[in-house]
Amino acid sequence: MFEVEPVEKKQPQGRAVAVDKQFRAFDPHQVLLLPPSLDDWLPEDHLARFVADLVDEVLDLGPVLADYTEKRGYPPYDPRLMLRLLIYGYTTGVRSSRAIERKCADDIAFRYLAAGQAPDFRSISRFRRRHLDALADLFTQSLHLATKLGMVKMGRVALDGTKLQASASKHKAMSYGRLVDKEERIEAEIAWLEAKAQGLLADAEGADKAEDETFGVDGKEADLPAELDRREKRLAKQQAARAQIEAEAAEKARAHAEDKERRRQERAGTGDERAVADAAEQAAANARPKPKAQANFTDPGSRITKNSDGAYIQAYNAQADVDEEHQVITAADVTTNPSDALNDTTMLDQSAANTSVHPKQALVDAGYSSETNLEAARERQLAGGTDTFMATGRLAHDEQVPPAPRGRIPRKATLKERMARKLRTKPGRKAYSRRKAIVEPVFGQIMTCQNGRQLLLRGEDGARGEWRLLAACYNFRKVFQHAQTAGLAAVIA
């Protein structure tokens, strides 16, 4: 339209001129002449190869296989396949059954472990729930494997606890006082609905008219029974939660009364078990829950507790006893009590039973400090030679432990005072300073590398089984790192 003079085309400034470069051959539609092998797609030192050899040649699968007693039915997936996927998933932080199903299609390592198969998430979830006890038993096998490699010395162990978020919301919990109030209101609503339904049924002649007035012209007769059914189900859940709180209060009162009566008899130099039982039953009968005692409708075994960040969460209290040599977990358990004080003796006893050796030193956090645990520590030293270092209080940030006072220990010093003095000595401070370096990194690796901050299974048994599976996979990862130099053949031998 407009006449313009032709202009010579210029190359953009700063950009190199393309040359006739030869690239490597790339053909996305190339058909393979030979079928591919998944074995060629992973490095020789890959964790997935270790897991495959571990399941196929090292672990005892008897507890899992013993559960298959019925010959009829469609053939299930091979337990070795499912164990491979679960162990590798829980080791690498892929714990959800749906996530494992996706990985079997997207991830080379999972495809290698599944030998090209792709079990659906329901099969994975059912296998995990069905064989939960056998999966938890893998923890003991992992500990024995680490001991066989010389990774467990039991010279010094550290005990601590951490809060694992339950598969339930804290907003689904209700206090005992509110439960009582809600039950009364729902019972009154149910009584009103039942009376209304009976009145409608009794008035046979005016049934249609009454239904139109009650339900509306287009209403259904089933609306009232459905509303009644919903309230009855809600009442049943609340009554179950109330019964749980009352049973826990009674059990706590029973245990406290038994301990109190036995202590009284020890001071008096007598021993009457009948009196102990009577005191316990009377205390249980008179026990009344605190108004703020709570129960959760989704996961009744979990409790609202404060985590390390100071936030209140619906959680379980996970315990771990860790050996210093290679930070191998020697004991793992889960409790519903937010306090650590009740777990000191049971965890150290479990550690000694799992390894058949009493540790020379036990480093215990201040959360376990109690007169009962200090007495148990003294008896443990006399029986098994375990020297316990238990903090009797918490220090502020950057606060230094004061030196121990000079002179002899007073004869009237309590066990707590003696332990506090012991931790203020140079050997005591040196030994206890190792506690955080032994056990805290273990929790950090499980929370981050294994995605173990929140549980997937509900109930105390489910939480315990999943925590022990996490601990087992943590130990297997430690064995893998240690066995990379010697090879798995040395482990099998």
Description:
There is one protein chain. By secondary structure, this protein is α/β, with parallel strands linked by helices. The protein folds into 3 domains: 38-130, no CATH class; 152-169 and 303-457, no CATH class; 171-296. Helices cover 52% and strands 10% of the residues. It has helices at 47-58, 62-65, 79-92, 97-106, 108-113, 121-130, 132-148, 176-202, 207-215, 223-268, 273-286, 344-355, 371-384, 415-423, 426-432, 435-448, 460-486, 488-492; strands at 156-165, 173-175, 294-296, 303-306, 312-323, 329-335, 361-364, 387-390. The strands form 2 sheets. Strands 1, 4, 5, 6, 7 and 8 form a 6-stranded mixed β-sheet that branches. Strands 2-3 form a two-stranded antiparallel sheet. β4 (303-306) and β5 form a beta hairpin. α3 crosses α17 and α4 (97-106) crosses α6 (121-130). Residues 306-476 form the Transposase IS4-like domain. InterPro entries: IS1182_transpos, Transposase_11, Transposase_InsH_N. This is IS1182 family transposase. Residues 207-226, 233-304 are annotated as: Disordered. Residues 237-247, 277-287 have a biased composition (Low complexity).
How many domains? The number is 3
Q: Label the overall shape.
A: globular
Quickly give the structural class.
alpha/beta
What is the helix content? 40-55%
Tally the helices: 18
The radius of gyration is: 32 Å
Mean pLDDT: 81
Low-confidence region ranges: none
Protein name: IS1182 family transposase
InterPro entries: IS1182_transpos, Transposase_11, Transposase_InsH_N
Biased composition (Low complexity): 237-247, 277-287
Region (Disordered): 207-226, 233-304
